[in-house]
Amino acid sequence: MRSRRIAGADFGALLVALIAGAPFALALVVAGLPADAFLARELAITLPRLDNFVRAVEAAPFPRYFFNTVLVAGLATAGSLLTSILAAYAFARFEFKGRDVAFLAVVATLLIPSHVTLIPNYLTMASLGLVDTYPALILPSVASGFVCFFLRQQFRNIPRTYEEAALVDGASRLQILWLVILPMARPAIAAMAIFQFLTEWTSFLWPLVVTTSPEMRTLEVGLAALYDVAVDDGIVNWPVVMAGAVMVMVPTLLLFALAERHLVRGVAPEVVR
Amino acid sequence: MRAVAVAQPLSLARSLPRLGAGLTPWLHVAPALLCLGVFVYWPVVWSLWLSFHRWDFLAASRPFVGLANYRDLLASDEFRNALERTFLFVLATVPARLLAALFLAQLLLEATPQRRFARAVLFAPYATGGVAVALVWSWIFNADVGLANALLRSFDANGLPWLTSTDLAIVSVAIVAIWKSLGYDVVVFTAGLTAIPREIHEAAALDGAGRFARFRHMTVPLLMPTTFFLLCVMVIDSFQTFTLVAVMTRGGPAWSTDLLVHLLYRTSFVYFEIGRGAALAILLFGGLLLFTWIQFRTIGRRVHYGGDR
Q1: Do residues B160 and B168 make contact, with C-beta atoms less than 8 angstroms apart?
Q2: Is A38 an interface residue toward B (CB < 8 Å)?
Q3: How far apart are CA B251 and CA B264, in angstroms?
Q4: Could you tell me the pLDDT band of residue A271, with boundaries at 50, 70 and 90?
Q5: Residue A47 pLDDT > 80, yes or no?
Q6: Residue B1: what pLDDT?
Q7: pTM, whole model, 2 decimals?
């Protein structure tokens, strides 16, 4: 009786996976179809073709978008990790006047939604002459209240004994942070790195607003533009659009598949873990 | 020898705070604070300032207009429409997300390979970009060549105007929103469920409580902190939906999916009415804070975090 119920839930699990994953699989199938077969609804499984991917790259500079996205997401992630690690360590270990107020100010940013900062940040970039540049895409993301908060909690869980031993050996504060704390907090830092990278990779509204030329677009913005043009022209070549979508999704899905455990650790909130 | 080795770290422990005194801590936190100040705090102040001024992008004068932006906005049909559609969208997504996620978390709780796999697949859309998945679903919901209608037709039913009907479009977008975030919700619920000690269930089962009774009287109350956390996240999240409607419907048809942030976007960056857009941003921000505060005062109060009996 019991074993049958368990098998039933496992069957249900596979069904859930099938339904939840179907849109990805279908996008891949459509992306591999010749346009005429798609319109004739011939979903015959032929050898997937790369024509649509080639046509998508001809219609929009996806390699350039890819480069932009990797650069922006990479630098923003590195920046936010650097600022957060430094600050989180100070919040976790130093005692100084104003610490609690400063920490509260960092955490309170979690309450401020990005739509409030959208217009002024655009105006800031405009006044600095940075609209449509990489700094405009990267700078607003080089600090993160969430990453700082998360890492501070993690650092506090590391016993002080290790640092004291290093201090005895004459290590400086930065050496301790680099050689003692970081290696011990590696899983937490990895979780935040992946989380930030994916957040940046999939960010849409800010890059949409702050880029004006096609060469500066990120993958998501470029993909949306490709579709917008097709809609305005009144002809959407779905296999080509799906090929574009697949190209944008594959890196995130690969990264997710490789780092699922790390990522899930990062998003499940402390309070409920 | 041994005594010295123990004594040294102890005395250092007491002197640790002093080592961090002076400028060093501030040098550590300065980069983060500076960046958050320039790109988060200053913008809030500036938004507030902007909301009291009329600023049509290219116009030279930016006169102070007091509360006029707010008054015009609150009186406008497009704001009322966006507010109504956003509330509808929140109602269409939040309860469904809570119920579906609780059911799935319960179904997938045991860590068998199949269930772990299902949890991972469910989470994948959350890790993927909004534009890409919006496009996949735009095809699925396309009235002529989409998968949804192809399936309906294969059962001899009529196709539906998924994204082209003023009634249905918001439902279609809600379906995508639910699909996209369900994996996250399940992960959070799973974490909450795992934290409930097994012994409690075993004891209740011994006392003759059935599966449903245990779920109703034990799992649900013990899960309240998790549910409450998720509820707050979901409400904030739903109120700010932008990408899905921007790509799938552009707010249409007939502005039936013109959610608040979409209205904010087109007011500020299509019509370039910066002051009015800022007023909308401030209203939405204030509304979300108020909503979260109300949730804490009403539901949050009754949430049992345990250990305080």
Answers
A1: yes
A2: yes
A3: 12
A4: very low
A5: no
A6: 36
A7: 0.88
Q: Per-residue pLDDT for B5 more than 50?
A: no
Give the three-class secondary structure for B64.
Answer: strand
Distance between B166 CA and the closest CA of chain A, angstroms: 19
Burial class for A148, CB neighbours closer than 10 Å (0-12, 13-18, 19+): buried
Give pLDDT, residue A127.
Answer: 92
Q: How far apart are CA A232 and CA A229, in angstroms?
A: 5
Q: Is B16 within 8 Å of A252 when comparing Cβ atoms?
A: no
Which of the 8 DSSP states describes residue B56?
B
| Beta-ladder partners of B186 | none
Q: Is the pLDDT of residue B8 over 60?
A: no
CB A255 within 8 A of CB B129: no
As a whole number, the mean pLDDT across chain A is: 87
Rounded CA-CA distance B41/A118 in Å is: 12
What's the confidence (pLDDT) of residue B66? 85
Instruction: Choose the closest CB to A13 out of B114, B150, B195.
Output: B114
Predicted ipTM of the assembly: 0.88
Question: Does residue A173 register a pLDDT over 90?
Answer: no
Residues A194/A259, Cβ–Cβ less than 8 Å: yes
Q: What percent of chain B has pLDDT over 90?
A: 54
> How close B301 comes to chain A (CA, Å)?
16
Residue B222 is predicted with a pLDDT of 87
Q: Least CB-CB distance to B39: which of A14, A24, A140? A: A140
Residues in B closer than 8 angstroms to A167, CB to CB, are 12, 16, 19
Question: By three-state DSSP, how is residue A48 classified?
Answer: coil
The owner of tokens 């937490």 is A188
CB-CB under 8 Å, A248 with B131: yes
**Contact: A145, B36; criterion CB under 8 Å:** yes
Where do runs of H (alpha helix) occur along B108-140? 113-127, 130-140
Cα–Cα distance measured from residue A227 to residue A234, given in angstroms and rounded to the nearest whole number: 11
Residue A29 identity:
V
A250 touches B at CB < 8 Å: no
Report the candidate in A178, A175, A15, A154 with the shortest Cα–Cα distance to residue A82: A178
- Extract the tokens encoding B45: 């102040």
Confidence band, pLDDT 50/70/90 cuts, at residue B51: very high
Backbone angles phi, psi at B53, to 5 degrees: -125, 150
Q: In this complex, which of B108, B127, B288 lies closest to A256 when CB atoms are compared?
A: B127
Residue type at position A262: H
Rg (CA), chain B: 26
Peptide bond into A214 cis (omega under 30): no
Question: In whole angstroms, what is the distance from residue B145 CA to residue B165 CA?
Answer: 16
DSSP string, B32-46: HHHHHIIIIIHHHHH
Kindly list the residues from chain B whose CB atom is less than 8 angstroms away from the CB atom of residue A268.
Answer: 187-188, 190-191
Could B136 and A245 be called an inter-chain contact, meaning their C-beta atoms sit closer than 8 Å?
yes
**Given an 8 Å threshold on Cβ–Cβ distance, is A118 in contact with B140?**
no
